[in-house]
Amino acid sequence: MDVLALVYQYLFRWVIAPVSDQFLGLFDLNGRLCIAFLFTSYAIAYGLFRVRRSRGQTDAYTFWQFIGGSRVHFHPSALLDYRYYFVRAILKVVLVIPVVGLVDPYVLRSGDYISFFTRLWGARVQVEEHVALSLLYGLGVFLMQDFIHYWAHRAYHSRYLWAFHKVHHSASVLVPVTASRVHFVEKVIERLIDIIFLGAYAGVFWYACGGEISRYTLFGVTYMVFILNALAANLRHSHVWLSFGARVEHVLNSPAQHQIHHSDAPRHFNKNFGINLSVWDWMFGTLYVTQSKPEAIRFGTGEADYQRYLTLYSLIVTPFVEAVGKLRQLKPLSGVSVVEVSSVSATARIAPRAVAPAAGTDAGPAS
Ligand SMILES: [Zn+2]
Ligand SMILES: [Zn+2]
To answer: Which stretches are transmembrane (predicted)?
Structure first.
């Protein structure tokens, strides 16, 4: 009996609790995958369907066909995404939280910055709470987070981190849950850079202005992310082509732009790293704007990977195998010529996404 109780206790802690939390996440306004946000995204998609249908711009007879139909939503890649969504919850409890917890005590927090500045320049007069201040703080968090995630995303596409980020790109069809197809190493890095940079920002901001932090965020996320999630964020990982037009896409990242980021075509490689804003892509030369007419694109990382990334094992373990393989390749490089080195790095940019399996990407017919 005691053994059974112990087993249940462990099972509850490491499996049942995280999986049920993940399920409840579908109702959490903190996450993009909240049912409410899915609803608003697909309401926009339905509007697009009606408009395109009336203009004869789509061959889809039904809305289900328009969003990709069974071919997309029951594709092996999508089925894996659904399973991984819940397995990831377990990985979060077993790996991400402990690793972040280990580093966490060594990271400077906003309070550390405030006391540092107070010792340096003395205490500042606390500004009274004001809605403008909270909006300014929220805007700053949003801009900083989006900016650092842009650069982190660029780093994930580099030679050694690509093996882990490839998990996300290996999806050969896109469904909203694909957003959660992220390797836990990437998640750990993301958490740590968030803690480090946002702690510094909050410290500087609140030393300068005074006040408290938590109350200035809406549902735990900044209001900007909330607004963008409520719009069409879930269509980024979908087969519904929604372009914002070239002008807006210099600032805001559209679903079509993120679909371009998932494309297997070399002309689309290393474009549109932005999360919510594409202004960073514009500033740093990685912008690719889209037209309202859907582009014919295929998603994935190439024919060779199509069969490789169809299991939970491949999403969790394969990146480590690949990363170790690349590190091994590194050793002989110290003795080779510059020509050889440059050819290796060129391969690293091009090889990860050579040819991909067919997957209907526009809003055309799919059953
Ligand atoms: Zn990427
Ligand atoms: Zn994506």
So the answer is: 29-49, 89-108, 131-152, 188-207, 213-232
- Which of the two residues, 220 and 352, has the higher pLDDT score? 220
Q: Residue 217 pLDDT > 80, yes or no?
A: no
Spatial CB neighbours of 237, under 8 Å, sequence gap ≥ 6: 171, 174, 175, 176, 177, 178, 179, 258
Q: What is the mean pLDDT of the chain?
A: 81
CA of 113 to the centre of ligand 1 (A): 33
With respect to residue 366, please indicate whether it lies within any of the assigned structural domains. Answer: no
Range of the domain at 162: 14-325+341-349
Within a domain: 333: no
Which ligand is closest to the CA of 271, given by its number?
1
Task: Compute, in angstroms, the gap from residue 83 CA to the centroid of ligand 1.
Answer: 21
Q: pLDDT (tens digit, 9 = 90+) per residue, 238-295?
A: 999 999 999 999 999 999 999 999 999 999 999 999 999 999 999 999 999 999 999 9
Distance 221 CA to ligand 2 centre (A): 20
The three-state secondary structure class of 311 is coil
Pairs from 47-56 (Cβ < 8 Å, separation ≥ 24): 48/240, 48/242, 48/363, 49/363, 52/363
Please say if the pLDDT value at position 204 is more than 90: no
Nearest Cα to 201, choosing from 240, 124, 254, 148? 148
Ligand 1 centroid distance, CA of 208 (Å): 36
Q: Where are the alpha helices (DSSP H) in 210-298?
A: 223-230, 255-261, 279-283
SS3 call for 252: strand
Phi, psi (degrees; rounded to nearest 5) at 284: -110, 20
User: From ligand 2's centre to the CA of 179, what distance in Å?
Assistant: 6
Q: Based on the structure, what is the number of domains in the chain?
A: 1
240 CA to middle of ligand 2, Å? Answer: 14
